[in-house]
From TrEMBL:
This is Methylglyoxal synthase. Catalyzes the formation of methylglyoxal from dihydroxyacetone phosphate. Substrate binds at H8, K12, T34, G35, T36, T37, S54, G55, H87. It comes from Brevibacillus invocatus. The keyword Lyase applies.
Amino acid sequence: MKIALIAHDRMKEEIVQLALAYEAILSEHELFATGTTGQRIMDATSLTLKRCLSGPLGGDQQIGAMIAQNEMDLIIFLRDPLTAQPHEPDIIALLRLCDVHKIPFATNLGTAEILLRALERGELDWREIVHEENER
Ligand SMILES: O=C(CO)COP(=O)(O)O
């Protein structure tokens, strides 16, 4: 599965802790991240992530493009609910595309943990069927 991990600055420590706690599960998947988030996770874990640009420089849009092509299977995006972001339109666009393609999307730690446990139990395997149908 292709999983994107993204966090705003005030949430970076949370996503690093999440990646550490779920490293074994995450290591079985293809991981993507926005620039700084990806670097922080790679510095703290043994995970390898494909890093896009930093969010404000277009990283959200790069991940959004993958979602638009229905290539992304799970998004964990720990958004900062208390700080305005200069690239808010990119963030909203990413969210909207997840809804268009029915991609599981977590915006906080509570939901992120539920989704990662569901992933471990194989409850997101329906995404493989979506990919097979897209290839036809
Ligand atoms: O701004 C972001 C998401 O909107 C995250 O970008 P960075 O991971 O580069 O900080």
